[in-house]
Amino acid sequence: MTMMRWSIAALVIDLTIFYNIERLDFYTKNAVNLSSFVYALTAIATTSIIITPRTWRFSLQTLLLLWTSIYLGGRLLFLNDHPLIGGGYLYITITEVVFFLLTVVLSHHVAYHLHDFEDAVENISFSGIKRRVLSQDDASTVIKNELYRSRRYQHPLSLLVLEPDQASLQASLHRSVRQVQQAMMGRYVFLSVSRVVGNFLRRIDVAIEQAGQQRLVLLCPETTQDGAMVMVERLKQEIAEQLGVSVRCSIASFPDEALTFEELLREATIRLKAQGQQDGELPHSVLTPSAETRNREPEGGRQPEGRFREHESDGKSRVPLPQSDVPSSCGHEHEEQEREREVSGVR
């Protein structure tokens, strides 16, 4: 906000002096007689730079080169009423160029700080993120549908739990306001991360906000654990490039590690907390699967001896193992799978 105020004030002062410079002839009348074309071009440049979307993304050198070319082209081709150099005209040309380019620079600064302010307001108000990030209650139907579809067609599904790494947030806070400022900073960073994640996800992925936890739960259908780990690395890189912060992320996969959403979430949360205890040494690492999980991973290209085995008839379709191989804590989920096996057998 401070930089935006200074930028706007500097632009106002610059325009005030520029548009009244001809009135500052204290000793010689009409010593400065700038072209009307320059006044009009300055107004056009200032307005277009500030109000045109994404102009702030252009480098300052690019804008200076562009508007200098427009100025020279207009003066030489269309308004060649007096030479650019020679005698007193050199002084007028220098005055025009200096004030014109200074106005372009200040307009670019104002546009940049305005965008930064709008971005902050959008993040704080959660505007534009709610369309992509759902609360867990709102996402309950989607969660049930995706888990049912994955069980029905024996497709993989992965769940990711992601949160900003607090160690990467650098701030010097007064002790009396530390808790409030840390909460505001954490919320702001979380919303910024949510926006980046929302833009990154596929259309079939579901982003869920864990209320009160400053965490995102990502439900990723048709995604194996290996695919989820690749996705985590890309997400970390994207967030680091856009926001300059690091995140922690853990993974739990269906059906190798859990069969219900609650179990997947519990497994991923446990891993995330364990990872947080190690982040003093490895703040950017992704928690690897537990020893039990690794023992279930394929070796030498063989099918893992987990929840699925090859069907003897065609060697392609995978069917669940018998009920005895499934933990008894899953209750009604296993009964539903048994009914699906019976239907498949009839077919």
Q: For the residues shown, what is the average pLDDT?
A: 72
In CATH terms, the superfamily of the largest domain is Reverse transcriptase/Diguanylate cyclase domain
Structural class: alpha+beta
**Second CATH tier, the architecture of the largest domain:** 2-Layer Sandwich
Our measurement of the CA-to-CA distance between the termini, rounded to an integer number of angstroms, reads 67 Å
Low-confidence stretches: 171-177, 280-347
Specify the helix fraction band: 40-55%
- What is the CATH class of the largest domain? Alpha Beta
How many helix segments? 10
Order of helical and strand elements: HHHHEHEHEEHEHHEEH
For the biggest β-sheet, the strand order reads 1-3-4-2-5
CATH fold category name of the largest domain:
Alpha-Beta Plaits
Radius of gyration: 31 Å
The coarse overall form would be elongated
The major pleated sheet works out as:
5 strands, mixed
* Whole-number count of domains: 2
* Portion in strands: 5-15%
Number of strands: 7
Put the structure in a nutshell.
This protein is α+β, with helices and mostly antiparallel strands. The protein is built from ten helices and seven strands.
Task: Write up what this structure looks like.
With 347 residues, the protein is α+β, with helices and mostly antiparallel strands. 53% of the residues lie in helices and 11% in strands. It folds into 2 domains: 123 residues, no CATH class; 174 residues, Alpha-Beta Plaits. It has 10 helices and 7 strands. The protein is elongated.
